[in-house]
Amino acid sequence: MEMTLDFNETLKKLAELQTTDSGLDDLERLKKGFNQNIAALENGVKALKTAVQDAKKALEVLQKDRKTLEIEIGTLDNKVTKYLGQQNDVKSNEQFAALKQEIEKSKEDKGKLEEKVLEFLFLDDEQKKKIQALAQDLAAAEKKDADERKSLLDKIADCDKATLEKKSERQKKIAEIPEEFAVGYEALRNNGKKIAVAKIQEDLTCSGCHMNIPPQVLNEMKKNIAIQRCNCGRYLSPEA
Question: What is the mean pLDDT of the chain?
Fold first, then answer.
């Protein structure tokens, strides 16, 4: 009777330890999720900052190109003025016609450049609107980051506090378990088997690996001879 009592009590303590560890696993997942949310907020702000910088650089290129065109227009203006002044000094009709042709060509080229300048002015305005919209999005994202970050950090702090409490609880529980079973339990957990104490399901399979439990193991459990383990290594319990 004493062996049966020890057997049942040990299984019970192993199951309680597993419940505590499951709680620790849940806290770890929660904390990971909160940290991922913080990272997503940071990445959103970073992406918008980059977009604003890129838009400003694009505006600088537009303005530089427009300035180049305006300089070319000024050069053409000077040429037209120069040619108009030279008309009074020409000695022949051929020279006068040549100057007139140069003046007309310069005016034509100037008109084309002025059209391009107008296009650049339109693009300039559009780019400034884009920058303004991105800046507003950035400000909103930074506010959201500041607001939600505080809440997320508070939740992470709560997780850390709960984790410390559960770890303390875990130390007490594992100390109450016979060393042989505590070592076996820890080995299962360290090998990635989060379910170390598995329940025998209605179809007589292990809730951990879902494989059939050998009849011999089932018979041994009925006799309460010792704590039984599935072929997967997990401890078996009818009430895990």
Answer: 92
Q: Which of 176, 208, 231 is the last residue of a domain?
A: 176
pLDDT tens-place string over residues 94-134: 888 988 999 999 999 999 999 999 999 999 999 999 999 99
Q: And the tokens for 114?
A: 């002025």
- Number of structural domains found in the chain: 2
CB count, 10 Å around CB of 227?
A: 21
- Residue 210 CB-density burial (10 A; 0-12 exposed, 13-18 middle, 19+ buried): exposed
Q: Which two tokens stand for residue 24?
A: 């620790």
**Enclosing domain of residue 62:** 25-176
Question: In angstroms, what CA-CA distances link 21 with 26, 32, 45?
Answer: 9, 16, 36
Residues 204 and 126 in one domain: no
Are residues 217 and 109 both part of a single domain? Answer: no
CA distances from 115 to 74, 104, 126 (A): 14, 17, 17
Buried residues in 20-56 as b, exposed as e (16+ CB within 10 A): bbebbeebeebbeebeebbeebeebbeebeebbeebb
